[in-house]
Amino acid sequence: MVLDCFPENVLIDILSYLNVRELVRNSRVCRRWRQLVKDQRLWRTVDLSSWNGLTSRVLWVLLRQYLGHGLRCLRLRGLLLSARRGAFLTESWLQALRSKCPRLRRLCLQYTDLRSLRSCRLLPASLQVLELRSCEVSPGFFSQDPEAGGKAAASAVAIETLVLDGVPSFSDQHLCGLSTWQQLSRLELRDLGRVSAGGVRRCVPPGAQTLARLTHLELGTWRYAQMVALGLGKGWPGLEALTLGGNEVSPGLLSVSRLQDLRWLRLRACRLNTKTVLRCCRSLKQLRKLELADL
């Protein structure tokens, strides 16, 4: 074959333009191509969200034959809206993923049922970013015992960024569970009907169960009553970036003046008048960046 004349690095670059299914098919061409496809440079960012018919069996095949120490980002689409349903991410698969992919930093799940998983500690300990979009979670999924020692302490959540978009089962109880996440600095909440303004206020430091290390917070598409009651207590020490989105943002701006450490304010997909924005910004002495998107 003509391609056999090319050096390995050139072939790796060519193969990098293929998606996962195409890579797997090309691995069956010959022994050399199989070795090339298994090169971990091709498996740093793996997007399986567009793979129709993805099952737990396929996940096991990919993990055993292709995924390895090179994996940094993994995107999956589950079976939550599929007629097939059934188990998708199992505890055994996640344990194998933790072992084979120790450098995994970002995990993005869409339409995935996580209610069979007891705790978030089953996720790879190397994760820094977790995105859940249109997923389902168990009541105690985000909780962990801060006093636990031994193996539980070694597997403590090290996630720094958590994105929750359209997770219908996520409630104030889950939000309270995030207070045990010692590394969490960025939290994005969008389309969460069971999270109340009171639940957010209880996370404001000081307090026994607060998100004291949070520096970035996004509240998207909240209802009018939630924005009116937002409050944010007497302020949120250390909160440097805030994003508000939805049609009812104006009432929420009344509480922003209490965030004296705020440096970046982003207003997205909302209706505002100039007077309201100016009144809000004048009270923020540390504000350095104002971003308006999709107004």
TrEMBL record:
Q: Which InterPro entries match?
A: F-box_dom
* Pfam families cross-referenced by the UniProt entry: F-box-like (PF12937)
The protein, known as: F-box/LRR-repeat protein 12
Which ranges form a coiled coil? Answer: none
Taxonomically, the superkingdom here is Eukaryota
Q: Where is the F-box domain?
A: 1-46
